Amino acid sequence: MKTFTALVKREVLDGKNGYIRVPLILTGITLLLLILSTLGLGNVTYSSGMEQEGIHNFGDIMKLAAEGDLSEMSPAIALLYWATTALTWVAFPFVIFFSLLGALYEERRDRSILFWKSMPVADWQEVSAKFFTPLILAPAAFLAVVIAAQLFSALYLSIMMMFQGGPVLDLWPVGLMVRSWFVFFAHYLLWMVWAMPILAWLLFVSSFARRMPFLWAILVPIVLMVSESMFLRSHVIANWIGLHLGGWQEAAFGNGDYNIKRPGDVLNVILGDVQMDGLIYTLSTPQFWLGLVIAAGFIMGAIAMRKRAI
Amino acid sequence: MTDSEVKAPVVKARNLSKRYGKFRALKGVSFDIPLGRIVGVIGANGAGKTTLLNAVLGLSSYEGELSVLGFNPSKQRSALMKSACFISDVATLPKWMKVSEVLDYVGAVHPKFSRDKAMEFLDRTKVPLNKKIRALSKGMIVQLHLAIVMSIDAKLLVLDEPTLGLDILFRKQFYQSLLEEYFDEERTVIITTHQVGEIEHILTDVMFIKDGELVLEANMEELTQQFIEVMVEPGKEDEARVLAPIMTGTTFGKSTYVFKNVDREKLSKLGETRRLGLADIFVATMTGDGQ
Q: What share of chain A is helix, strand, coil (3-state, %, to 5)?
């Protein structure tokens, strides 16, 4: 355990630009934009077609909204906070992609593998640390930054509200916010186990590519897909990759009758039974299990490659 | 010979081979390395030194039988690394890590690493703890790496060209502290280097490798007694040639002859005699007649 902790710590140190700096910078930019945009909300809300009597600032909007249905407003507020961190998540897939692709490639390129191998650490331990750190710790770090940003946004808007005389407490749908964080992470994990064969493929590429792992990772599936559609006129591989990269959600959630009419319903649905639906669909789909078997194959391949790598 | 021979050898190889496609980098070598030795593995570039050491360290596959400290290195590398350590090539420390982070890491994964000892070694150098490896000079990186391996209580230390590209002062210091502060009868060190002259005084044994074969395996003491170079006085050349020298040459206008296993008394009548250095023994052995 001590060894594994040390390995994970090393991976975090190695990837801290992607895991920590990137979300910090992007979230910082978003928060800056939020602050800049609210500077205008102090008095200028009269744009053409949007004129409403009695609304002079953000506080007035909130007052008007609070008079309406609160069950609609709270989810809208929680969603607003998620929206302010959307930019951060754009970078996330890239961080995962390049972390996995460099995991077993960089150590061979800079020869540090010879140092790592002089330590009493087994290759399977190294490979699992390099696989699970980006998968678990990177999103945890991103989420931590995002949570901090959401709290900051709420705090900032609250302070503004105090000056403008709006309903401060309505800016804090705390229960919803906390639940959304947990549900987000749970959904993310489900997403990751579906994507496991593709993620494991990236790790496998990084274990054997002599150079340009990026091209290997991208070109092999593209060549397979193109030749399949040229010679067999089918799209099994493309569909399979699409399914594992997120397409499963359509099957998992697409048939549900979720009755979304207002923006608030989106969050209510997400926080409701839909996660359980997704889990049940996942566990009962052979494609999911096949994906896991393929992922295990790639990971064992990566371990075997690392055993012989110098 | 001594009690160390009674104990199980640290490295035991039988018919050890390695192929890269059609090329046979190791052609079935067999040898034992007992505890408490400093063994120099000497050979030309591409002779198979690194291939041999990589097999011993579990870094590559091989054919034949190999046991290192009782482990099968190919299958049990991580277990072996608890009692064995190596520096293979210079500058393999991760460049993106800080010195203190490297020490933290080794401390966490290696049960036999003493951080205090490492700090003791590092205090004598100018290696800064809070800098990244990338920012250190080549010499400092080697000093750090040596400080780390010398602070690991290992039974076997393998050094493959550990001082490549370093200046003579570093190299001298290194071999001195290796001998005085690290080596004892409970440890074995295996070294390869091109600067044979610098290590010959610390070696207890040598192995000569040529084209994937073990040409010679000998105790240093015995080996250096076998080879005698004579600067033959003018007029005695014919006498010298009768004794079948394995090498001839000229120094300062005088003929020099190298003899193997010829009585020293007899040779001293021909002229001035001296023991041959390891580098010369290597050359004499490799050029054919000395084998």
A: 80, 0, 20
Distance CA B150, CA B182 (A): 6
A vs B: CB pairs below 8 A = 80
Using one digit for the tens of pLDDT, what is the confidence trace for B96-127?
999 999 999 999 999 999 999 999 999 988 99
Tokens of B243: 């004794």
Is the reported ipTM for this assembly greater than 0.85? yes
Q: Among B150, B181, B210, identify where a domain stops.
A: B210
Beta carbons of B111 and A120 less than 8 angstroms apart:
yes
- B-interface mutation test, from A14, A105, A118, A308, most B Cβ less than 10 A away: A118
Domain assignment of residue B195, yes or no: yes
Q: What's the CATH code of the domain at B166?
A: 3.40.50.300
Sorting pLDDT into bands at 50, 70 and 90, what band is B5?
Answer: very low
Question: Of A62-66, A151-155, B18-22, B224-228, which range is least confident?
Answer: A62-66
Chain B nearest-CA distance from A114, in A, is 6
A119 to chain B: closest CA residue: B81
Note down the domain range covering B239: 223-286
DSSP per-residue letters across B173-231: HHHHHIIIII--TT-EEEEE-S-HHHHTTT-SEEEEEETTEEEEEEEHHHHHHHEEEEE
Instruction: Give the pair of three-digit tokens for residue A88.
Output: 């951060």
Q: In this structure, are B188 and B263 located in the same domain?
A: no
pLDDT digit string (tens) for A103-138? 999 999 999 999 999 999 999 999 999 999 999 999
Question: Is the pTM value of this prediction over 0.95?
Answer: no
Asked whether residue B181 is domain-assigned, the answer is yes
